[in-house]
Every structure is written in C-alpha cells, then in structure tokens.
Specification:
By secondary structure, the chain is mainly α. It has five helices and no strands.
C-alpha cells in the first residue's frame, strides 16, 4: 500500500491528465463522419430490402416505446385498475348504443361484412 494521502493522489492525477477533446467535439466529429458515410450510399439501390429493414426498425422502436409506456403505467398501483374500468365502461357504452335492438345489431353485422369484403376479398 502507498504511504501517500488520498488528497495528494487526487492532485497528482488531475495535473497529469491530458486535456482531450470535449464531448461536444467528439459528437460533432461523429456526426460529420456519419453524414459523410450516409452521403456515399446510393439510396436508389436500396429498393424493397431497404424498405423492409426500415419497417422492421420502426416496429422494433415502436415496441420498445410501447413497453416503456406500459411499464410506466404499471408502476402506479391504481392506474391499471382504472384503465381496466375505463375499458369496461367504453365497451358497455358501445354495446348499449349499437346492440340493443335487432336493427342496430344487423347494421353492425352489415358493417363488419362490408369491411371484410373490402379488405379480405
């Protein structure tokens, strides 16, 4: 073990440390290198593979954001129960407005069939 006091070690470490580039200098260097590399890419050749990779990247980012939001909501003990109650109220209100009479039920069924024909057939 060293006989020197901790204060003298800190002073000697601060004096001998070279002054390097700051974080903002490193960030601007990185951004200029990234812009230079992206400028060299021929984006017209990317085609469907680039679009697929972009869609996959967007889906991954969206799932991460959704997970963070859900974890934040679950962090508060009363909020998930209130959201569940809100969902039950909204479904009940929609059901009351759209399923109480046979005419309303047949109209909803017709809308569902039209949507199915439009998107599936």
């Amino acid at each position: 073990m060293s006989e020197a006091s901790p204060e003298s070690n800190q002073d000697s470490n601060n004096e001998s440390a070279p002054a390097g580039p700051t974080i903002s200098d490193r960030a601007s260097d990185f951004m200029s290198q990234a812009n230079e590399m992206l400028g060299k890419v021929d984006w017209s050749q990317m085609g469907k593979y680039g679009k697929a990779a972009g869609i996959i990247a967007v889906v991954i980012v969206a799932q991460i954001v959704i997970k963070v939001v859900v974890d934040t909501v679950n962090f508060f003990p009363i909020l998930p129960g209130l959201l569940e109650l809100l969902g039950i109220v909204v479904v009940g209100q929609w059901s009351w407005q759209n399923l109480t009479t046979s005419e309303k039920r047949s109209a909803v069924l017709e809308k569902v069939q039209n949507i199915r024909k439009e998107y599936i057939d």
